Amino acid sequence: KETGFTQEDRERLIRLETTLKVFMEQVDKRFEQIDKRFEQVDKRFEELRQDMNARFELMNKRFEQLYTFLWIITGIFTTLTATVIAFAYWDRRTIIRKAKEETLEHLEREGKLKKLIEVLREKAKNDKELETILRKYGLL
């Protein structure tokens, strides 16, 4: 009994090997294409991540600007408030000082007038004409 391969078996094996070789090449090409697609997807993810990081940095800068602006506004408000309080204090002291001076002047004049009226009353005891005038004006 002969167990050898026939010519037909050999040709069939060669065709099978050729087909298998072509199939393996196609599978390798497909894997390369899949690898390229994965690389493209990775690249897109990396671009998206960079874009998101850039946007977050922009937002951080914006918040920092707003925070600085709020500090400036707070400083201005504090300065204005302190200025208004200082002005009110100064104005009040000035007005009180002036009112005090005017009151003292008024009291001095009033005191002198009282003395003058007292002197005139004393004089009116001896002078009838002066007594008549003082009575006419209700000073006696």
What secondary-structure arrangement, pairings included, does this model have?
Layout: H1 7-124, H2 128-136
Describe the structure.
With 140 residues, this protein is mostly helical. It has a domain at 7-101. 91% of the residues lie in helices and 0% in strands. The chain has 2 helices and no strands. It has helices at 7-124, 128-136. Helix 1 (7-124) runs antiparallel to helix 2 (128-136). It is rod-shaped and about 180 Å long.
Index terms:
140 residues; mainly alpha
Short description:
By secondary structure, this protein is mostly helical. It has 2 helices and no strands. The chain is rod-shaped and about 180 Å long.
What's the total helix number?
2
Uncertain runs are none
What's the total count of β strands? 0
Q: How much β-strand is present in the residues?
A: under 5%
What is the straight-line distance between the termini? 175 Å
On the 0 to 100 scale, the average pLDDT is 92
Tell me the Rg in angstroms. Answer: 57 Å
Helix content: over 70%
The coarse overall form would be rod-shaped
Largest sheet: none
Order of helices and strands: HH
User: From the helix content, strand content and strand pairing, which structural class follows?
Assistant: mainly alpha
